[in-house]
Amino acid sequence: MHMENNVMGIAFGTAVTILRNTLLPDFSGTYHQIKTTDVTKGIPAVVPITGNRFNRTNQANFKKIPGSPIAYWATKKVFKSFERSTLDEHFKGKEGLGTGNNRVFLKYWFELILPNEGWYPYQKGGAYRKWYGNDNYYVDWRNDGRNMKAMPKSNIRNLPFQYSIGITWSAISSGKPSFRYTQTKYFFDSKGPMMFHVHEESYFFAIGYLNSKVTEYFLTFLSPTLDYRLGQIQKLPFIDEEVVSRIELQRILTLVSQTLDTSKKEWNQYEESIDFYKHPLLTHIADDKQTEVGGRLENAFAIWKTEAQDRFDQLKANEEELNRIFIDLYGLNDELTPEVEDKEVSVRRADEERDIKSLLSYFIGLVFGRYSLDTPGLAYAGGEWNTDKYQKFVPNKDNLLLLNDDRYFDDDRDIMNRFRTFLAVTFGEEHVQENMDYIAYVIGKKADNSEQAIRKYFVDDFFKDHKKGYQKRPIYWEFNSGKQNGLKALMYLHRYDEGELAMMRTDYMYPLQSRYEERIEKLQQWVQDESVTKTKKQLEKKLKHVTQQLKELKQYDPIVRHVADQRINLDLDDGVLVNYEKLQDGNKILSKI
Fold first, then answer.
1. With bands split at pLDDT 50, 70 and 90, how would you rate the model's confidence at 7?
2. Fewest CB atoms less than 10 Å from the CB: which of 119, 339, 425, 428?
3. Domains of the chain
4. Residue 41: left if φ>0, alpha if ψ -120 to 50, beta else—which one?
């Protein structure tokens, strides 16, 4: 009797077994499953329970599956499949590096100066995603990995296979397996092993099989605990493409090629990809704005939503067709159906709030010169600054952008001045206000008008969203004086220099202090004006707030001066966490990450 996982809320399997210490070659044991729901109301009235796993089978069959698991529910066709050749007879599977200290040797690609000699793309498994993606890391292999090799706990495995093209996956998963074809050269990890072949067509055929429901089904026998390590994957039964008909093979290769291209294109439409080239909501905007978008951001989102849904539907249809083919090839039509649940499709549909907020993030990147409306992809990620890359929208001269909760400047120091310019350049001056209204509606911040709503988002929520999107390794750092937001400002890590804080004090903090003082003086006059009655409480509340902001800013200044005088140097090869701590000065300068 086999007890289902999650009995009493505990995720392990239990079993009741009757043993006889004698080999009975012709004896068929009886096996049946008891689920949690079957015993919550007492002892089941009937055993075996209808609908649960049940079978009578000879235990000799279990030897046909590598590891001899007690897979009593396996059918004759399953056992027959495991009598075929296995995947490791066709592909060389290898585990990769054990760095000895991932915090030192691994960095998210966006933490580093790019390009960066000695740092290489690195596969480390990651979240559930099929076909393409999860290429988030770089590994320090400077001087042929000298520092890693000297690390006492490092394990330098399979060097001849490192920095290669292949198929990778997440060895440890909380759900179903997902395989990806790297297509470019990568170093790889023990948690993200890889398998290799000499022919690209073989990769296409294999990944079509590996991402099918057939592989998922076989792994329920080989690895029921969701541990998809190299040993389990190599034991998968495998029909070589050489024994598949030419028509079937061509169909598989075509479907896989389309699916890989679709997945790659979708991955690259988000900032998390190193090959991100342009925000998707801007892809239909022409220089004269006379496109089907018509200068309206809402129209741009509608087009993007349709594109994303079409891509989702096509990839789902491709996966279901691949399932049909491989189910038929392995003769599992009675066990499996080809349908794919929406939640198992790796590409993302449009999401209005997420995608509009991602446009705001892209705008911040434009302000700092990380991106350019004239240059696809990364325009600046360290190194030499080139002003020729920026024509339509010129980045801020200073590496700073104020996040004031009200308008105090009418130049590039104010975020909403910059944002209005961005909207005018991309969607047309005549559509700025309606696009502002649409954005304010989508992000849902309560305020008197759309400008204040968007401003409130940047002040209250942008850095939180940025941290989340960048895995708590932000590249736009937020200076923060405290709860009153006396000073909040963003800077771009890759443009930082030792004079950053001195510049901030001289060109931003002192002028802002003067603006606060001017605002306080006006508010005091209005409050004292006896003709003002209806808005007096609001004015008094505003006066109190600005007075508190001024006080907070003055208290923040000596803290900033202390750090500015140190002229701290940052080395991007050390990563965000180390550099953030250098500048943070004991949680006093920057918002916490």
1. very low
2. 339
3. 2-74 (no CATH), 87-243 (3.90.220), 355-584 (no CATH)
4. alpha
